[in-house]
Amino acid sequence: MILEHYELGDTILRATDSLTLWQAENGILEISGNALAIPVKLDNEQKGFVFHGRGKLLLDTIVETDNGAIGKPVEKELHEPFLMLGDTEEIQKHLSNADKESLASMGYENNKEFTHKAELLLDKFSKKGRAHDSHCCHDNSGLIFAFPNKADKLDVLIADGPRIVYKAIDKVFVANKGKVILKTPEEVIVSSNRKSVIIKK
Question: For strand 45-52 and strand 19-24, is the pairing parallel, antiparallel, or unpaired?
Fold first, then answer.
């Protein structure tokens, strides 16, 4: 699967109420009502959205080890457009066509301004060569999110059932059924059912 084939739809939508885009035992991603959304398509099939609203990502990336808890949770305020790929059938029920007031509330004068920002985000995601990550969002179970960060790159969250992969500037976190890997600039922690190995850099 080549991500360059992804393209944006023609219709700008808005959330009619607050939405929970993803929720699991150790995390949640929410976005406010009136958030803007533009469909992302692949071969004329809808595969996700680019959203822009006021949102928040909370993710527990703390690792429990023999030496106690290591790490800090992710608490990310979402103010810039971000990408969501995966099953969006339920979300679609909470979207309607956006009007000028909806666009203005996010700082846009017209549809073209939002579409342009969404295109820049999609291009940046595609050029990162993340095609190997895309398989999880084509079986209608997994989700991929990509968020701009302060380094003008993308933080990425992949969630597929109990499997979670989060990659940001300062950490990589992988969790799957009691097995956890946390990589930071200072150390690497590998934990399986609280039995852990810590490697200092």
Answer: unpaired
Predicted confidence (pLDDT) per residue in 87-104, tens digit: 989 999 999 999 999 999
Question: Residue ranges of the chain with pLDDT lower than 70?
Answer: 1-4, 128-141
Q: Which residue has the tokens 């790490």?
A: 71
Q: Count CB atoms within 10 A of the CB of residue 81.
A: 24
C-alpha 149/C-alpha 155 separation (Å) is 6
Q: What is the pTM of this model?
A: 0.89
Category of 45 on φ-ψ map: left (φ > 0), alpha (ψ -120 to 50) or beta: beta
Q: Is 111 helix (H, G, I), strand (E, B) or coil?
A: helix
CB neighbour list of residue 188: distance below 8 Å, 6 or more residues apart: 181, 182, 198, 199, 201
Determine the Cα angle at 176 with ends 175 and 179, to 5°: 75
In three-state form (DSSP H/G/I as H, E/B as E, the rest C), the secondary structure along 7-75 is EECCCCEEECCCEEEEEECCEEEEECCCCEEEEEEECCEEEEEEEECCEEEEECCCEEECCEEECCCEE
Give the C-alpha separation, 14 to 94, whole Å. 8
**Residue 103 carries which DSSP code?**
H
